Amino acid sequence: MSEATAPMVATDDLNPAALEAWMAANVAGYAGPLAYAKFPGGQSNPTYRIDAASGAYVLRRKPFGPLLPSAHAVEREYRLIAALHPTGFPVARPYGLCEDAGVLGAAFYVMEMVDGRTLWDGALPGMTPGQRRAYYDAMVDTLAALHAVDYEAAGLGDYGKPGNYFERQVARWTKQYRMSQTDDVPEVERLIAFLGRSVPEQTRTSIVHGDYRIDNMIFAQDGPRVLAVLDWELSTLGDPLADFSYFLMNWVTEPEGRSGVKGLDGPETGIPTIAEVVARYCAATGRDGVPQLDWYFSYNLFRLTGIVQGIKKRMIDGNASSKQASATVERLPALAAAAWHFAERAGA
């Protein structure tokens, strides 16, 4: 599923007999026996590779233990990929959803194991400028294709609430932050006030992925073709500028071996500039342009702050699913400060 990644983690936190029985009853074409291992990393929904006589599968489950009410919604994630797969948009084939926590201890779903490359570093080391440009073009075009999906025809007309997406999201992440708050962070308090009173007007509605970045995609082994977009936990119906501005955050994020490419764009590297990405996305989606981005960058960093605060609370409660959780939590003050920096640029 990926390259240049940490080894799979041996684990015994699933019940093999219960999983075997569920797979036999619910997954078309399944044949056992099975073995499983956990994918490394990720502080959200624990994810496993299942190898069986009938092939390889991926299982995603909710974390064990107490959870915030709207977090870790694997049921929504499954519904989304099950609706998108028939449209031809690149997602893994869904095989089955189990909402009965009595089977494995938490709700889970099973999908196809897509054979391809996962690229973790947005700098795309080792590639030529032309290759890098092609990969970025593929990412932009795939995002534009998502935003063009007829969500009503796909049966997702009720997948999100009507009204201003950003207004709802600011309220949601404020609530999530409050429910997992462990410290007093002054920048977050100022952000909550500013973002809530300055929400931009929404002009379009689409499926929104919610975490669209390079390492949430599987590319073909032989070139810049997106085979599957992964991790739909934060998806909903909303303003497509939420996804697009989140993707553009890579250009204002330091390159640390992840998706950030600040200072790396231009003809020497082949990574397109923000202006070039905006032009390509607007051409594909029929937009005249995108609005001033500082508010959107501030919002995206505020949302990340809320996500990291949730990880911190789960770490304190003993439910964080990754050893990397503590390193992620250390970023919280810097995230809040960066969010406030863009808020000030947006007029706060």
What's the layout of helices and strands?
Blueprint: H1 16-26, E1 34-38, E2 47-52, E3 55-61, H2 74-84, E4 94-98, H3 101-104, E5 108-112, H4 129-148, H5 165-180, H6 186-197, E6 206-208, E7 217-219, E8 226-229, E9 236-238, H7 240-248, H8 274-285, H9 294-317, H10 325-329, H11 332-345
Antiparallel strand pairs: 1-2, 2-3, 3-5, 4-5, 6-9, 7-8
**Which series of helices and strands comes N to C?**
HEEEHEHEHHHEEEEHHHHH
Give the fraction of residues assigned to helices.
25-40%
What is the count of DSSP helices, taking H or I runs of 4+ residues? Answer: 11
* CATH class wording of the largest domain: Alpha Beta
Number of strands: 9
Structural class: alpha+beta
Compute the average pLDDT.
Answer: 91
Q: Summarize the biggest pleated sheet.
A: 5 strands, antiparallel
Taking strands numbered 1, 2, ... along the chain, how are they ordered across the largest sheet? 1-2-3-5-4
> What integer value in Å does the Rg equal?
20 Å
CATH topology of the largest domain: Aminoglycoside 3'-phosphotransferase, Chain: A, domain 2
Terminal Cα span: 43 Å
Looking at the overall shape, the CATH architecture of the largest domain is: Alpha-Beta Complex
Indicate the proportion of strand residues.
5-15%
Unreliable stretches (pLDDT < 50, length at least 5) are none
Tell me the domain tally.
2
Question: Quick one: CATH superfamily of the largest domain?
Answer: Aminoglycoside phosphotransferase (APH), C-terminal lobe
- What global shape is seen? globular
